[in-house]
Write a structure and sequence with these properties.
Length: 298
């Protein structure tokens, strides 16, 4: 989950990123904000933490030389689920999302090692409900269950606070005088507060979807992002076609209903590997092309 790369591996990363220096105490990235990319540490220390309240943070891991900070969010330029701060002055290689695409293709063995770590880190976040939005309402309320289902299908960690039993949740509801019909309310990692949001509104707040570019013309539009839809997109890409995949719920379709957390993470990884901005990329050793699809809003 937290591998340490040797010097040769770190040197192989250099051509994909840019050297950057961080001073002690400097925030590297914040939950709810899009990160600069994968942070490979050459020297110094970076601490990754989760928020446990307005002024309280809990340490998850400290990255030292040869390690890298990031998880699946870095693969698709999505907002971070955790915070990262510099404990000791850091020299690092910052690999942006667009260059991670090249790393995965051109350095297959190194890319596989990094991908495995990113997947396992997301699984840990899911299992511990670390990061992600906080839902405040009645646990058995229909809309609370709806939002929980949407976040679970999308591979997003989250927490539910009972507004009747949790003192912090009750204080929040009373302070802002929320009416019962406003519940549930959702506190997003970026600090935005939503009142009984729909799935699309919540997805936008979390950075899971982006507007469709009206100027872009696709060769193929696939409605339904289940296993068959994703397979169709792969074959379309192998023929050099630009494809867009649309789904009203989440990538993976029916497979997500019975997927374990590790399977869910792999499904999400396959999705984000197709979510880079360029529609296709040619494999370095053949004429085969990979499609890179972006989850779009309708």
């Amino acid at each position: 989950m937290f591998p340490t790369l040797d010097k040769k591996a770190m040197e192989r990363l250099r051509r994909f990123g840019e050297a950057k220096t961080y001073a002690a105490g400097h925030p590297v990235f914040r939950a709810g904000e899009v990160t600069p990319g994968l942070i490979a540490v050459l020297s110094g220390k970076i601490e990754v933490t989760q928020r446990r309240g307005h002024d309280r943070a809990e340490s998850i891991v400290t990255h030292g030389p040869g390690q890298f900070a990031g998880e699946l969010a870095q693969l698709s330029a999505r907002p971070s689920l955790v915070d990262a701060d510099v404990l000791e002055p850091v020299d690092a290689i910052v690999i942006p999302t667009t260059r991670l695409q090249d790393l995965m293709v051109q350095e297959a063995d190194l890319g596989e090692q990094i991908m495995r770590a990113l997947i396992l880190r997301r699984v840990r976040l899911l299992e511990g409900n670390i990061g992600g939005p906080v839902i405040i309402g009645h646990p058995n309320q229909t809309d609370v269950l709806r939002l929980q289902g949407f976040l679970a299908r999308s591979g997003q960690p989250h927490r539910v606070l009972d507004c009747d039993k949790d003192p912090c949740a009750r204080a929040l509801v009373e302070r802002f005088k929320f009416d019962p019909h406003h519940l549930p309310i959702v506190l997003c990692p970026n600090g935005k507060l939503l009142r009984n949001p729909g799935d699309r509104e919540l997805a936008r707040c979390l950075g899971l979807v982006t507007p469709i570019n009206p100027e872009k013309i696709y060769d193929v539009a696939i409605v339904g992002a289940g296993p068959a839809g994703l397979a169709a997109a792969v074959y379309a890409g192998s023929e050099g076609l630009s494809a867009i995949v649309l789904d009203c719920r989440a990538f993976g379709g029916q497979a997500l209903r019975h997927a374990s957390k590790i399977t869910l993470a792999f499904l999400q990884a396959s999705q984000v590997l197709r979510s880079w901005r360029e529609p296709t990329i040619r494999h370095k050793n053949s004429g085969w092309k990979w499609p890179f699809l972006t989850k779009q809003s309708g």
